Prior knowledge:
Blueprint: H1 30-37, H2 43-52, E1 53-56, E2 60-64, E3 70-73, H3 79-85, H4 92-95, E4 97-98, E5 106-107, E6 113-121, H5 123-129, H6 135-154, E7 160-167, E8 172-181, E9 183-189, H7 192-195, H8 199-202, E10 214-220, E11 223-224, E12 232-233, E13 243-248, H9 259-288, H10 292-320, H11 322-340, H12 343-349, H13 352-374, H14 382-396, H15 413-420, H16 428-446, H17 451-457, H18 462-472, H19 478-494, H20 498-540, E14 553-558, E15 562-564, E16 567-569, E17 572-574, H21 575-581, H22 592-597, E18 606-611, E19 623-625, E20 630-638, E21 656-660, H23 661-670, H24 675-681
Parallel strand pairs: 12-20
Antiparallel strand pairs: 1-2, 1-6, 2-3, 3-10, 4-9, 5-9, 6-8, 7-8, 9-10, 10-11, 13-14, 13-19, 15-16, 17-18, 18-21, 19-20, 20-21
Helix pairs in contact: 6-20, 9-10, 9-13, 9-16, 13-16, 13-20, 14-19, 14-20, 16-18
Keywords: Aminopeptidase, Hydrolase, Protease, Serine protease, Signal
Function: Catalyzes the removal of dipeptides from the N-terminus of oligopeptides.
Enzyme class: hydrolase
Amino acid sequence: MKRLMVIAALVGAAPALADEGMWTYNNFPAAKVKEKYGFQPDQQWLEKLRLGAVRLAGGCSASFVSPDGLVMTNHHCARGCIEQLSTAKQDYLANGFYAKTQAEEKQCPAMEVNQLVEITDVTDQLNKATQSMTGKQYSDTLKAEMAKVEKACANGDDKVRCDVVTLYQGGKYNLYKYRRFQDVRLVFAPEHAIAFFGGDPDNFEFPRYDLDVSFVRVYQDKQPVKTPDYFKWSEHGAKENELTFVAGNPGRTSRALTIAELEYIRDVSMPKTLMYLSELRGMITEFQKRGPEQKRISSNLLFGVENGLKASKGRHEALLDKKFFASKVAAEQELRKKVDANPEMKKKYAAAWDEIAKAEAQLVNLRKDLNYIEQGQGLSSTLFGIAKTLVRAGDELPKDNGQRLREFNDANQPALKAQLFSPAPIYPELEIARLTFSLTKLREELGAKHPFVKKVLGKESPEQVATRVVKGSKLADVKTRQALFDGGKKAVDASKDPMIQLAALVDPDARAIRKKFEDDVESVIKKNSELVAKASFDIYGTSQYPDATFSPRVSFGSVKGYMEDGEKVAPITQMAGTFEHATGQDPFALPKSWVKSEKVITGTTPMNFVTTNDIIGGNSGSPVVNKNQEIVGLVFDGNIQSLGGEYGFDESVNRTVAVHSDAIIEALQKIYGANRVLEELRPGSTKVPPVKANPAG
């Protein structure tokens, strides 16, 4: 892998330079954009951007692109839906999907779209509730107050989602109110072969030649939702040096973490994550060799694991870069020096870094039990996840809202129920393989003599336990799950389902390790991170952007190439290059629809492009718009250098990778004949009959 050279986004440094930053809508540096690009977005412009960009609850971004609820996102963001709708006889991942009529649009079993409609600063309310508190009392009170705020915001309406978002490590809290759409239907998806053309070898690389796009539609009351706030399509698409905005939901950055936290990631958690993902990839790869159906049902899982593995390698390499890490150390020392120089600040803030370091030292000792007993690495399967939710729901839902585990709060229940009662297929053979692997890792990591391992395995092998509980479980049936949920704790306790019994058996241990982590580690880090953030505010002001939290953000940049290994990388590829890049063998094999259409495609049509926009995982599916808020592209990746973007940003090489808007139109028209989608994106564009080679419908 190429060496990652990242310039630190310094903790407590001066306001961000260049095109750096994933900004909140209520703290966007409009004047800075004007200074560099000659255009200053006003509040009305930002509000329209916020309403047009949406979030997919599973971890991606998207946007409204028509007034009738049509949503554009990445193919890889819709993969779960596409796979769940597929069968052995009709594989939409392999063959693509196009609903020629509204009646043919297929409902995704477990997809949710969120539109941010309101932002409220609730910092003072939460700070007042937790004033002078520390440890468990601070943590419990903060969670209860968050739940109270969210419940009052939603007011019992399942069509509303309210989240208290922690910004600046607790320096500020904003209440985000979303319009929630849970009836989402697939409209169009190309074949996997072109959506992920180049596969893992090309992942996080550039030049690229992917059509990583899908279209879904949101419904309410069985009718498409009217969406007046949508992005129109650009007539010409992105051009070199053009100002671009990316509106999306970056998942997580760690640019403001303390050195103690970064050292834990670098030295402890990341190496273990890399090992776990590597072994899991091997298991799934072997599973796929059992046959074509096994390959089909596990392809989405493998995609996620390979993507996560490559991203984790890039992040780890950034932390191993001595120059970069030294810059982070220097920034923290500078901030602490300024705090120590002021007696009042020293009294309030000086101990915060040391307290976080102590908590991180405790986490080293808790990590294995936390990861393998509570957080899923030791008991990994869809059926076990369902059983765990049902067991805990019986205990949690009778409690007051603010006293529940956070995932069971009123604000989170619609999403929880949508996942719990999803009709998505569950495959026993894959379940046994996954559970066998995770139980094997549980025994390996905790040791055969560990009391928890003995409790779970008894005299059986991991494979015997996995086979017994999967084959004996009835939880694949949605009606069975619904009956247990409705019956509450009494029904769950009486259940003879072996998966329920396994979840009930391990739940006391899992809760105990979670409580220890929350009381002794998480609460300490949260409280003291808040103090570090406030120290930074006192010294440098609040003109910085907060770390990403999978909440709506906007970044600005331009279409621009970069230097790599002494050579200039051009910012835009062409569709003709897609065919030149093809070898005929996976993962560089084009689908038949593309091979047949090579002569009718205009080869000079832009295919993919890069920009200087600052993004991170979670931005997948984000629209790229120009200053007129017209679609010029669709984010689907970052280049290899951007993987260090979790910890810092370097405008010289960090790049967003996007599908060009012209390539989407060219493919819809000349390859897929997707007239209905074309007409929504560009009214009147279907008057000229397109050449078509439809995917499966």
